Amino acid sequence: MTKSELIGEIAAANPHLQPRDVEVIVSTIFDEITAALARGARVELRGFGAFTVKRRDARAGRNPRTGEMVPVEEKSVPFFKAGKELRERINAAGEAAGEPAKA
User: Fold this and answer.
1) Looking at the 3D structure of the chain, how many domains does it have?
2) Taking CA 94 as the corner, what is the angle to CA 93 and CA 99, rounded to the nearest 5 degrees?
3) Is 98 buried (19+), middle (13-18) or exposed (0-12) by CB count in 10 A?
4) What pLDDT was estimated at residue 91?
5) Which residues, at least 6 apart from 77, have a Cβ–Cβ distance to it below 8 Å?
6) Pick from 2, 60, 94, 102: CA 20 to 30 A from residue 30's CA?
7) Domain of 34, in residue numbers
8) Is 58 domain-assigned?
């Protein structure tokens, strides 16, 4: 689902809101999550999951085209861990669709 599809779904489910207002709301939420992660804060959305920032150490990488070793600098990467409720809903939806449950 793209951002515009999300905005469309929310606007359709809430006809009392104008689509441009929904767009502002969705953009504000994403901007706040991004700003919190940039500060190194953890963002937890109960029933959905948690966003955190993980540090990756500097390392020696390899150029796949030439095979030459290249230095890769230390960096921060966003990480998402799905919440229990989200995992359960996804698994329930998969089972309802006829997918076999994994043991």
Assistant:
1) 1
2) 150
3) exposed
4) 93
5) 53, 54, 56
6) 94
7) 3-96
8) yes
